[in-house]
Amino acid sequence: xxxxxxxxxxxxxxxxxxxxxxxxxxxxxxxxxxxxxxxxxxxxxxxxxxxxxxxxxxxxxxxxxxxxxxxxxxxxxxxxxxxxxxxxxxxxxxxxxxxxxxxxxxxxxxxxxxxxxxxxxxxxxxxxxxxxxxxxxxxxxxxxxxxxxxxxxxxxxxxxxxxxxxxxxxxxxxxxxxxxxxxxxxxxxxxxxxxxxxxxxxxxxxxxxxxxxxxxxxxxxxxxxxxxxxxxxxxxxxxxxxxxxxxxxxxxxxxxxxxxxxxxxxxxxxxxxxxxxxxxxxxxxxxxxxxxxxxxxxxxxxxxxxxxxxxxxxxxxxxxxxxxxxxxxxxxxxxxxxxxxxxxxxxxxxxxxxxxxxxxxxxxxxxxxxxxxxxxxxxxxxxxxxx
Length: 387
Ligand SMILES: Cc1ncc(COP(=O)(O)O)c(C=O)c1O
Known about the structure:
Elements: E1 4-5, H1 16-27, H2 38-57, E2 65-68, H3 71-87, E3 93-98, H4 103-115, E4 120-125, H5 135-141, E5 146-150, H6 164-174, E6 177-181, E7 200-204, E8 215-219, H7 245-283, E9 288-289, E10 300-304, H8 310-319, E11 322-323, E12 329-331, E13 334-336, H9 339-343, H10 348-351, E14 354-358, H11 365-386
Parallel strand pairs: 1-11, 3-4, 3-5, 5-6, 6-7
Antiparallel strand pairs: 2-8, 7-8, 9-10, 10-14, 12-13
Helix pairs in contact: 1-7, 2-7, 3-4, 7-11, 8-11
Bound molecules: pyridoxal-5'-phosphate.
């Protein structure tokens, strides 16, 4: 059997239909959208078309979409673009976010807290035992200086889906800007920025079978944010620099496909994820499931295998040709337990004994069966070694 990729929340294989589009914009329609000649006009048309496609899948207007280099840039921009508007004028700004936010938001908030002590502050909410951030938690944390609430839609490690529409509604009534990191949910969980009262949203192409290095920020017309890059006039002067048109056209194609196929794809992926869970739980005792199998995103299964070092299991599975992930960050040779798993109540040992399986478009039932078998064998082997 070929290698089995069960790490689709980290990134995805580019869909052939998307790759063809990217290729076309690299080799045939390669003009600069700012050029006046026909190559440029063709590129400009493609850029407008891509913006329209992306806007459509979240019920936004075309002039509310700004292309970026990915989810990280969009998340950074949401925090920085808002915070700078206040701190630059000496006004205090308080942000409410969560303890399990992606580091693109989390680290940005930490950075600003250090950069502007006394002026910038952030509250990091702890999720409840189900792993959710509730509207009551947000409401309790609001202060007179709260300018932004940033709560992710789907968590990348455990797949919990936060009820962002109620948080959005609260923020709108309180006149607080609401940002959501939708990198893991975009075109996988329905999003309507108007109905859900979302002011700012981040998304990324490479999580939805599109190319890497491209994403977008949705910014509601009435919401002001400072530009993210200065220079030319691209992206309405908000994010200047020659547009990555092959990437943007590919992103739009990927979003269109994913959006159109959501009703068949998500149930299929969920069924495979459930099968993986059933097989593993039947073959291995004493496991903790960190994902909400009923209400969470159907592609993610996070399991703690007490007594097993997560990194050892990851490497053992890799030797069998199966790619999974641990939530642990490995920096300077030291493995730190996942912030997300600690936030939902796992101990550091449990967090380090956890594996995230993320199922995607190209996985098959045969792969799931094979992978489950190898997980069972390797967990048993590693547990025996520990005894
Ligand atoms: C929830 C979430 N936000 C942001 C990002 C960053 O996106 P990108 O890789 O496009 O910079 C990721 C990617 O891992 C993610 O999962």
